[in-house]
Specification:
The chain is α/β, with parallel strands linked by helices. It is built from 7 helices and 9 strands. It is globular, with a radius of gyration of 17 Å. 34% of the residues are buried.
Length: 200
């Protein structure tokens, strides 16, 4: 379980979280919503260890995130950021092999097919559309063998078919994992999630 207790985090004089509590368990998909500036992406970065809370605790399976090194965190959680910059002309296939083999799932062919990347494997990622690049970024995160998946706006720039396919992947993932998803599109997709956390 990912557990957040008494979280306080501020940027300068702007308080983003005060005494915030939440949790994510194996076997559930949780939707995190809220207006711009409410701290949705910040929460992903805090859970992912990229930011440190001023006070409170964030634990993954009882272990404080700030005590885990990068390798230990990679085994426990995978993060798909809202925007991943692809500046070098690697092929999609090469990007999907960035992860060390020991950290990758055994077979990613279903994932690649579901995300519509099969025909793009030999294309340079810098030549893809924004929506295609975001699916590559999502595939990279989902091909990581982890217990928890943190997905920041995975439906952004996707059409209805791609959105439906991503929702199917989330439903498959949550059978053995915990999945936290940020999305502004809550009205259309909230029914696919076990719980919704709304930030003011």
């Amino acid at each position: 379980m990912i557990e957040i207790q008494g979280l306080f985090f501020a940027r300068g004089n702007h308080e983003i979280y005060r005494d915030f509590n939440a949790q994510l368990e194996i076997g559930e998909a949780v939707l995190l919503t809220g207006p711009n500036g409410a701290g949705k992406s910040t929460l992903i970065q805090l859970i992912g260890g990229l930011l440190q809370p001023q006070s409170g605790t964030i634990t993954i399976d009882g272990v404080a995130v700030d005590t885990l090194n990068a390798r230990e965190q990679a085994v426990m959680r995978a993060v798909a950021p809202q925007r991943r910059s692809f500046t070098l002309a690697f092929t999609v296939k090469e990007v999907l092999h960035f992860l060390p083999k020991k950290l990758r799932i055994a077979d990613s062919s279903h994932l690649i097919e579901k995300l519509g990347l099969t025909e793009l494997l030999n294309k340079k990622v810098t030549e893809l559309s924004i929506g295609q690049q975001e699916r590559v970024s999502l595939a990279l995160a989902l091909s990581q063998r982890a217990k928890y998946y943190l997905l920041d706006e995975p439906f952004s720039a996707q059409d209805s078919e791609a959105t439906a396919n991503i929702l199917e992947l989330i439903s498959e993932l949550k059978k053995e994992n915990g999945v936290l998803v940020i999305s502004h599109n809550q009205d259309a997709i909230f029914k696919y999630f076990d719980r919704v956390i709304s930030l003011a």
